[in-house]
Specification:
Helices cover 36% and strands 20% of the residues. The chain is α/β, with parallel strands linked by helices. The strands form 6 sheets. Strands 8, 9, 10, 11, 12, 13, 14 and 15 form an 8-stranded mixed β-sheet that branches. It is flat, with a radius of gyration of 32 Å.
Length: 739
């Protein structure tokens, strides 16, 4: 357990600074809730206006309290918050929750005050939740220092869900959604502006909490991706899924990107890829969040640990899971049974969109199904029972058992729609409950536009039931993603340590950079890449026509000539590249032309020389890159070059370091991947060399993360199988502190 957070989440004593005896005031709520929900610690309301609050003694200030205080709740105007924190630090309070708003959420002036707060609490060793938050609740201990109205209206229901939300209002919406699924919560945590306590801290704490089985989050930004990655690893070690809604899918922030890589950094696909790499299950709305949490909580077989809690306090409602345990699907193959052929078709389409599979049935299995369902139904997958349930309710269990025993599937999904009072519900509902308990494969039900009592009876009995087929399939897809992540973790021991496959010597960055630039010239960039085992095309840096001619003869024609200057990152745009030079005269002419063009278009640029390079005409053009993302640190990009990168933005991302398996999956995500494996009779490219290059680039990015801002390898030519790769052009941008 993260012991420095115990005073916040499991305190022995709580002081409420700004407490009120007015039930309509926010300062009354933490006292009211702690009393109502059975908190066994000591409460100390603080407000010089009152002698009692909710019937318990109220103190004029902290110093009047003779006992130690673990947690302080601060509910005072913004201009009194810093003073209240100083008092807490002087008193030796260990943690604080700040309701007050008026900080970074209102703009620069508020941000300056919040920065002062951060300095104050760090110096004083005080852990803080907020500001601008709605508080926290540990439902198992009865601690409830939240002012969210969700607890006033719905009470406290114990269960396996730990919720962390940057928006208290959204948290108040999520809470009753859980109750609608007959699920309860272990913790409800509103973190607000995260001046100190952040989402990663909460994930780490909940991962080690015995009552929490599924961790839920609503986020509007991620502040420290590396810290979050470590927290999620701890959660996965405890086999606890982390599911989040991440809102605000906009650009990470303005940056003056000189490289193609940097210009793509704001793409939300970067965030999507990194969250997937971490193993976080991202969903896109609150209903999907709770639907997925419901399926995961029940599928991992959470067992109730609430015995005695409800007996001790009638205000607490315990979550009692049913005795049977739903099963994990072994794969992504879905067998669909419906009473609506059209809905079955739509569900099949949705499965494909979500990465699930709807396999075809063998002729033998179709014949067996056809003997059970009406002749006007369909034995294919999806199975259409049509109107059989109206007068032959036994059809459904027969088909389900057949699929369970013989179907080439991993999950059974039943859709029932428009089944009202004329159907034999007294037979159908018990059949569904029995099937849910007895099938060897996971069994999910969607009951749409039916009888509400039937739906509730199924839910109460522990059947995993949905009101919409898309919600059902999205939840299943999330569960399958979690299983994939667990299997991947077990396959590689949990994580990849980023060790070199070979041990090339690292090459230090140049000690002296050009006076006006933080950009390394192409030749220097390639030298640094070579220190990490990343190969480039053969080239020579020359300073005269004759040197250029000799270099061309040594390399072999045809050759390419380029201006090499750290102050000209994009040479082609200024006409400073000459290609397909096939004899000495062309080399001399190109050399003179480059010098004239340089004088005309960039007279102030410092020239390192003229590069003479072999001309690589075969292979597949790729682009690799590195950026320093403000949330995730060094991030690796790969994509096919040319139109794929510039127009189609066919790119893939991962947070460094990248393992060989992750590098392979990056390539497989690309639309242009078939070109690499030999589409339309083309020879396959050297995938293994490309994968090794991605891994090595990620190692460089990690080791030089304090120095390097961006790296662009574009193009990188991937030669035919067994012939390796060659970097044709490279751009490396250093961080400004090196200037």
């Amino acid at each position: 357990m993260v012991t420095d957070l115990n005073p916040m989440f499991n305190p022995r004593s709580v002081a409420i600074i700004g407490a009120s005896d007015d039930p309509l005031k926010i300062g009354y709520r933490p006292v009211q809730n702690c009393l109502k929900f059975g908190f066994k610690g000591k409460l100390f309301p603080i407000n010089p206006k009152y002698t009692t609050v909710a019937g318990i003694p109220c103190y004029p200030n902290l110093n009047e309290i003779q006992e130690e205080i673990d947690l302080a709740v601060i509910s005072v105007p913004v201009n009194q918050v810093l003073k209240a924190l100083e008092n807490c630090i002087n008193k030796g309070v260990k943690a604080a929750v700040i309701y007050s708003s008026g900080f970074s959420e209102i703009g620069e002036a508020g941000k300056r005050i919040q920065d002062q707060m951060r300095e104050l609490i760090r110096a004083g060793g005080l852990r803080v939740c907020g500001p601008n938050c709605q508080g926290i609740a540990n439902l198992y201990t009865g601690l409830n220092v939240s002012f969210s109205t969700c607890f006033l209206r719905y009470g406290a229901k114990l269960g396996p869900l730990g919720l962390v939300t940057q928006s208290g209002m959204v948290g108040g919406i999520i809470y009753p959604l859980g109750l609608e699924h007959n699920l309860g919560f272990s913790y409800w945590i509103s973190i607000g502006n995260e001046v100190d306590l952040d989402f990663a801290d909460c994930v780490t704490y909940l991962a080690q909490d015995e009552y929490t089985q599924v961790i839920l989050g609503y986020l509007e930004n991620i502040r420290d991706g590396r810290k979050l990655q470590k927290a999620v690893q701890i959660a996965h070690q405890q086999e606890k899924p982390v599911i989040i809604v991440l809102a605000g899918r906009t650009e990470v922030g303005a940056r003056a990107a000189l490289s193609h890589t940097g210009s793509l950094a704001g793409d939300d696909r970067l965030t999507e890829a990194v969250l997937k790499q971490m193993g976080i299950l991202r969903v896109y709305d609150l209903q999907e969040l709770m639907d997925s949490a419901n399926l995961l909580a029940r599928s991992i077989g959470w067992r109730s640990k609430t015995a005695g809690f409800a007996d001790r306090n009638p205000a607490l409602i315990s979550y009692h899971p049913t005795s049977h345990r739903p099963k994990f699907p072994k794969g992504r193959r879905v067998g669909i049974i419906t009473n609506s052929g059209g809905t079955g078709v739509m569900m099949a389409d949705t499965c494909v969109d979500l990465g699930l599979e709807v396999p075809s049935f063998s002729e033998d299995l179709q014949e067996k199904i056809a003997r059970i369902i009406p002749v006007f139904g369909s034995p294919r997958n999806p199975i259409d029972m049509s109107l059989a349930m109206l007068d032959q309710p036994e059809v459904l269990p027969h088909v389900v058992r057949l699929l369970d025993q013989e179907g080439p599937i991993d999950t059974i999904v039943v859709f029932l729609g428009m089944m009202g009072g004329t159907y034999p519900l007294d037979k159908i509902v018990p059949d569904l409950i029995h099937l849910s308990q007895t099938t060897t494969k996971p069994f999910l039900v969607t009951w749409m536009v039916g009888v509400q009592d039937a739906f509730q009876n199924l839910q109460t009995a522990g059947v995993i039931v949905y009101k919409d087929p898309t919600q059902c399939l999205k939840s299943l897809a999330t569960l399958v993603r979690y299983i994939d992540r667990i299997q991947e973790s077990k396959g590689n021991g949990g994580k990849w340590e980023g060790k070199r496959t070979k041990t090339p010597p690292s090459t230090p960055l140049p000690a002296h950079l050009p006076a006006r630039s933080s950009i390394l010239d192409e030749h220097t960039s390639k030298t640094l890449l070579a220190g990490y085992g990343i190969p480039s095309c053969r080239e020579k840096l020359t300073s005269s026509e004759e040197e250029a001619v000799l270099a061309a003869q040594e390399l072999g024609y045809p050759v390419v000539l380029k201006v090499c200057s750290a102050e000209i990152p994009h040479k082609s745009e200024l006409g400073l590249v000459k290609i397909s030079l096939s004899n000495p005269d062309e080399v001399r002419k190109a050399y003179r032309n480059l010098r004239v063009t340089l004088e005309q278009k960039a007279p102030q640029a410092k020239l390192q020389g003229i590069l003479v390079q072999e001309m690589v005409t075969e292979g597949i053009e790729m682009a690799l890159g590195v950026i320093q993302d403000p949330r995730f640190g060094p991030v690796i990009l790969c994509g096919l070059g040319g139109i794929f990168m510039e127009i189609l933005k066919d790119v893939s991302w991962r947070m460094a370091p990248v393992s060989p398996a992750q590098a392979r999956s990056m390539l497989q995500e690309l639309q242009g991947y078939p070109l690499l494996i030999g589409a339309r009779g083309r020879p396959p490219a050297d995938l293994e060399a490309l994968i090794d290059t991605i891994v090595r680039l990620s190692q460089l990015a990690m080791e030089l993360s304090e120095e390097v801002k961006e790296i662009d390898l574009n193009p990188l030519m991937v030669l035919n199988w067994g012939k390796g790769v060659k970097t044709i052009d490279a751009l490396m941008i250093l961080k400004s502190h090196r200037i």
